[in-house]
Design goal:
By secondary structure, the chain is of the alpha/beta class. The protein has helices at 16-30, 55-62, 78-83, 92-101, 133-162; strands at 4-10, 37-43, 86-89, 110-112. The chain has one domain: 3-Layer(aba) Sandwich (Rossmann fold), CATH 3.40.50.
Length: 163
Amino acid sequence: MSEVKVLFCCMGNICRSPMAEGVFRTLVEQAGFGNRILVDSAGTHADFPNSSPDPRALRAMAERGIDISGCRARRIVHSDFERFDLILAMDWRNHDALRFMCPKPHAHKLGRLLDYAPQVKARDVLDPFHGDESAFEHVLEIVEIAAKGLLDHLRESMKSTQT
């Protein structure tokens, strides 16, 4: 596996998925895999295309030194299923929406972010949009755990293909 392309997906692409994109991109760059792992995010609905991330997401990320202000909301498109190797939904609703949209030959690429965080009891990253600042902090904590698990998984996959 010389290059891996990962797409994080939530509903509107303004809270959870850009947060996951920012956290994972930072981990990837810190690990020295920036040239081997491509990271992006999209929404199953993304009703406000080209919108910036939610201000509460921006603040939570900035407190950790991660800038996601350049992220812009976009809806997942058909070519994403071909282009990306992993398409990770934040929750079961978005996973179901992705399964419905995904061409059968690419269904094996779908998963949930929390598949990479077995130590987290929840299986869904809950949408913080209708919550307060603490909801965004909670999402960020869970996303950080899962992103580390995902990076460990990809690191092992890349090692096994090199031998």
